[in-house]
Amino acid sequence: MVHSQRGDRLLRGEANGGERRLKSATSLDEKTLREAFGCFPSGVIAICGMEGGDPVGMAVSSFTSVSLAPPLVSVCLQTSSRTWPRLRTLSRLGLSVLGEGQDDVCRALAGRDEDRFSEVGWEEEQGAVFVHGAVTWFDCTLRAEVPAGDHAIALLEVGHLWTVPAANPLVFHASRFRRLDSGERSAVPA
C-alpha cells in the first residue's frame, strides 16, 4: 500500500488487478462520490401514479426492500425533483421493477419531457400506474418521508404485488445498463 501526501491511499493488486485510490473524507467531491456509488449495481424502478387523469412518474435507481411485516420498501428521491412533489400527494403509487431491455423506458421516465409516457406502455389500477414489461409491480401507499441530505427517503407500504420471478431486471452499474450473467452458479461452494 502507498500513501500520498493528501492522506489518500493507493491500493495495488486489487479490484481485478487494477489500482484504486481511496479518498480521505476531506477529498470527497460530487464526481468522486458518483463514481464510488456507481460501483454498486442497482435495479431500476419506475414510480408512477395518476394525477388528474394523466400518468405521472419517474425512474429511480435507489430502491430497497425494508420489512416483511409490514411489507415495506424505500426509494430515495432528489429534493430538486419536480416530479416527486406531485407523486407524494397521490393516494396510490405503482412501483415497476424494470426488466432487462427496458433501457429506453428508463430514459423516457428519467427525462425532462412533460409527456414521459408517450412511448411507454402502461396501465392503471386504482390510481397506481404500472409499466408494461416490468418484472415486478408493487402497489404502494406512502407511509413516511425522511429528509436525507439532498435526497428524501420515501418509505412505502406494499398493498399488492405481481411478479415474474424468472425474468431478468434492468441493472444499472457504472453509469451504464448491464445484463445479469445467465450462467447458473451456486453462491455457496458445493
Can you give a write-up of this model?
This protein is mainly beta and 190 residues long. It is built from 3 helices and 15 strands. It has helices spanning 30-37, 84-87, 103-110; strands at 2-3, 9-14, 18-22, 42-43, 45-51, 54-60, 63-67, 72-78, 93-97, 122-125, 128-131, 136-148, 151-163, 171-173, 176-178. The chain has a 7-stranded antiparallel beta sheet. The protein is globular and about 50 Å long. Residues 1-8 have low confidence and may be disordered.
Strand order of the largest sheet: 6-5-9-12-13-8-7
**Low-pLDDT residue intervals, each spanning 5 or more residues:** 1-8
How would you classify the quaternary structure? single chain
Query: Which value, in Å, is the CA radius of gyration?
Result: 19 Å
By helix and strand content, what is the structural category? mainly beta
How far from one another are the termini? 34 Å
Percent of residues in beta strands? Answer: over 45%
N-to-C series of helices and strands: EEEHEEEEEHEHEEEEEE
Count of DSSP strands:
15
Shape: globular
Number of helices: 3
Average predicted local confidence, pLDDT? 81
- Could you estimate the helical fraction of the residues in percent? 10-25%
Task: Briefly characterize the structure.
The protein is mostly beta strands. Helix content is 11%, strand content 45%. Strands 6-5-9-12-13-8-7 form a 7-stranded antiparallel sheet. A 3-stranded antiparallel sheet has the order 1-2-3, with no helix packed on it.
